[in-house]
Amino acid sequence: MFKTEKKVSFFDTISPFVKISPKSRSALLSVMQKDHYPKGHVLVPLGGICRHVYYIEKGLSRTFYIKDGKDITEKFCTENSFTCSMPASIVNVPDNRQIELLEPSIIWSMPYTELEKLYDDYHDIERMGRFVVTNELVHMHQRLSDLQFRSAEERYNNLLQKNPDLLQRVSLGLISSYLGITQETLSRIRSRV
Amino acid sequence: MFKTEKKVSFFDTISPFVKISPKSRSALLSVMQKDHYPKGHVLVPLGGICRHVYYIEKGLSRTFYIKDGKDITEKFCTENSFTCSMPASIVNVPDNRQIELLEPSIIWSMPYTELEKLYDDYHDIERMGRFVVTNELVHMHQRLSDLQFRSAEERYNNLLQKNPDLLQRVSLGLISSYLGITQETLSRIRSRV
DNA sequence: TAGTGTTTTTGATAAATGTCAAAGGAAAAG
DNA sequence: CTTTTCCTTTGACATTTATCAAAAACACTA
Q: What PROSITE patterns would the database entry show (chains A, B) (predicted)?
């Protein structure tokens, strides 16, 4: 008798780092929902509390907030990675971060409350959670040291080197605020090659 | 018969968030080492791989690195919090971060390899690990948005408000690089009150 | 193809911050 | 108490980046 298992890229992403038992795997799948969304869809609207963790199977999301009337991109999230409104999910408090999709995307949603239950019941899922958060932390460290003492030009070149496809997929206005500079400055940096 | 349990502030710090069983507690204690260090002691020297997670019971540490000959403070760590050279511990690769003590301190050291074993054996300790990392991540988020689009003055006032005692305990030269500015600029910001 | 809206570039100028050098001040050492 | 060292402030100037306004390039639609 065959056991048909749909291939889910989610598990391909985490399996090199965390071993997930078959039981845990199906427990996870039971709380995960897969959706197709169009470009421009808002996953987390302004004022809403982010109650899910999202895994992006395909597509591209942007986490942003408005500060002094300016739209500031905090994070881009591409294929095979996780996103959520971090402080909101952890402290369960609304914050001003929104998440929108910049491309038609395939998203897996996991309700945070369900995930907490799985953390209780399955040690390996708790480990997966730790792994995901840790990875994110390492990533944040790199961004922090970028912003702390690199010039705008260094930051741009860094991005160009580490994430060249992002510049193809995202408009410069969004990239510039991600780098912590204005659009005009980014344009000038690009012109003086 | 009395069971004498020494009070360990470590557990006071985490217990509001993570419930640690007595078994796990003693397992943790068995791999934790408490030390007194003088001011100026170097926990993680240049080129060394950080193989421990440190919990600061008393005192103050500074994580820093040298970039273009300049000493850059990445993080301060005060009483009842954790520190380690993040990328080094996770990826187990040497990096250029050093950790030194700015005051005489009481430090609990946990070897990373031992901790990994405990993660395997004790679900609640794994949860504790997830909790610590998550907390750190929330904290990093705040710093990131500070650095991304706030002026030097805003950042200073922020620090003054959120962490006033740090300014009493640490010299301005170290604070300034933490804020991502030069010492002269910080001095001028302070003078124009 | 012309027309409309959006994104990117360019220009002129202002503001913020860095750099280098030196002078004060405070704290530690003799 | 004096000397030495370290920390902080001040000054003059250079550089980077922001701001505001407009032009140019591009993309989409009728």
A: CNMP_BINDING_3
Alpha-carbon span B139 to B10, nearest angstrom:
19
Could you give the CA distance from residue B167 to residue A140 in angstroms, rounded to a whole number?
25
DSSP 8-class letter at A107: E
User: What is d(CA B91, CA B35) in angstroms, rounded to the nearest whole number?
Assistant: 26
- Mutate: best of A140, A142, A158, A186, partner B, most B CBs <10 A: A140
The CA distance from B127 to the nearest CA of chain A, in Å, is 7
Closest nucleotide to A185's CA, by C1' atom? Answer: D17
Quote the pLDDT of residue B165. 92
Question: What pLDDT was estimated at residue A193?
Answer: 67
Instruction: Label residue A26 exposed, middle or buried (CB < 10 Å: 0-12, 13-18, 19+).
Output: exposed
User: Residue B102: helix, strand or coil by DSSP?
Assistant: coil
Taken in order of first residue, the domains within chain A and their CATH numbers are: 9-112 (2.60.120.10)
* Strand ranges for A17-89 from DSSP E: 33-37, 42-44, 52-58, 61-67, 70-77, 81-83
